[in-house]
Amino acid sequence: MSQEPIVLRANRWVDIDAGVVRSPAVIAIQGERIAELNPAKLPTNAVTLDLGDLTLLPGLMDMELNMLLGGPSGGNPR
């Protein structure tokens, strides 16, 4: 069974390789994988989700959890 592609739109995305924040963010997803960032042509049958004023972190899964586990004020000792 084939899934429809999903297109995520947001105001910006973090380009980890370049070390910069880029704008706008358009991410095409096919199945469970990112197919393309800022594609020249969107899939015609895609479900589009407009996420508004968010920053996407493509390729960084659950990083928000990792950033909150410890920190300079102590937090979780792990």
Give your account of this protein's structure:
With 78 residues, the protein is mostly beta strands. It has 1 helix and 7 strands. The model has no long low-confidence stretch (mean pLDDT 83). The strands form 2 sheets. Strands 5-4-1-6 form a 4-stranded mixed β-sheet, with no helix packed on it. It has a 3-stranded mixed β-sheet with strand order 3-2-7, with no helix packed on it. Strand 2 and strand 3 (20-22) form a beta hairpin. 9% of the residues are buried. Helix content is 9%, strand content 37%. The N and C termini lie far apart (41 Å).
Q: What descriptive keywords fit this protein?
A:
78 residues; 4-stranded mixed sheet; mainly beta; single chain; 3-stranded mixed sheet
Describe, in short, the structure shown:
It contains 1 helix and 7 strands. The protein has one helix spanning 63-69; strands at 6-10, 12-15, 20-22, 25-30, 33-37, 47-50, 55-56.
What's the layout of helices and strands?
Elements: E1 6-10, E2 12-15, E3 20-22, E4 25-30, E5 33-37, E6 47-50, E7 55-56, H1 63-69
Parallel strand pairs: 1-6, 2-7
Antiparallel strand pairs: 1-4, 2-3, 4-5
What is the number of helices?
1
What is the distance, rounded to the nearest whole angstrom, between the alpha carbons of the first and last residues? 41 Å
Enumerate the strands of the largest sheet in spatial order, edge to edge or round the barrel: 5-4-1-6
Helix content: under 10%
| Content of β-strand | 35-45%
Radius of gyration: 15 Å
Structural class: mainly beta
Largest pleated sheet:
4 strands, mixed
SSE string, helices as H and strands as E = EEEEEEEH
Mass-distribution shape: globular
Could you tell me the number of beta strands?
7
Give start-end ranges of low-pLDDT stretches. none
Quick check: average pLDDT? Answer: 83
